[in-house]
């Protein structure tokens, strides 16, 4: 489990010192399965493992998501950055400071190794998850022939109004935690470490998770007031996770085995218009009742959905353009997504309307077979489209987890 000579060289002075000093023991960072749990909202999740944390990890309450453009033209510097980020992430996720000297332990005349705003705060369940965008596989770094087939550019969906400045990116980092200051601190320090090699392209703060990724969690609500993600993949669904979430060597790129693919969409909601819509129409649009989250025609949230069930008028309880019908796996070739979205409010638009909605996050084995057909169906037919618009989009390949202190994010890509 020791640090390899190659890994020691790549981590740089700060990262190597952190591991060598033993401030974060490898044994405390290791998990044997993605279902590893923290015992409270203050405790850490393990960092090392077969898969990256922050995917099937029980969804935390807060999000800070950032996409970066890589500005160095040197492949070695990009690989070195990922090694330095990994060393910092191993510390941060355990409630430690980003560098070995921390915020106050270094020379007074030098910039600190940590920005300091999380001093005294616990780990708060922090997870950091990294991904590589399609643009990273251009001609700059000799990676074009290693672009995995599932990382195909998303098509243009009907009705979307994407803003280029808040879409795409060469790299992404998803920070989830129960304390927003812990999540922001982690992203701030990774951006600081990356100075001169990456620049922030766009970022998004989120609160109020909109999906449950474990059956121990209650289903949360989106800003339209409905329970969201009732039928989400859960970390307890081992067979479905194997088939629908984790990439395998047969998926065209051996370096992605144990990884997954991430799609993000920023979806602005017309909150004020929705708030003037009748309860009956709101429920028909979703195909669920607003109180319990039950499918229309049923009683409880997790009752099986009967799309053939008809009401007293002889019409189906769940209409053809209802969101739940169009998004359901039975309507999409049994395609499942692991959703991990968050609500957002970015102030107002200057006209007295909330700039608010859903920051949609979904992990899957192959977006071409999962997200794309589902979203195309929704974009063409969903009654909810009257109240929402997609303004941002991202697609990223999330590599497998970091196995031990000699490993780093993306090693399988750069050393394949």
List the helices and strands and how they pair.
Layout: H1 5-21, H2 26-29, E1 62-70, H3 75-92, E2 127-132, E3 171-177, H4 180-193, E4 198-209, H5 238-244, E5 260-269, H6 271-275, H7 279-286, H8 323-327, E6 338-339, E7 342-348, E8 354-364, H9 371-381, E9 388-398, H10 411-414
Helix pairs in contact: 1-3, 3-4
Q: Overall pLDDT, averaged?
A: 91
Task: Enumerate the spans where pLDDT stays under 50 for 5 or more consecutive residues.
Answer: 1-28
Shape: globular
Helices and strands, in N-to-C order? HHEHEEHEHEHHHEEEHEH
First-last Cα distance = 21 Å
Determine the strand fraction and express it as a percent band: 15-25%
The tally of structural domains comes to 1
**Which radius of gyration do the C-alpha atoms yield?**
22 Å
Largest sheet: 9 strands, antiparallel
Work out the helicity level. 10-25%
Number-wise, the strands total: 9
Helical segment count: 10
Q: Which structural class do you get from the secondary structure elements?
A: alpha+beta
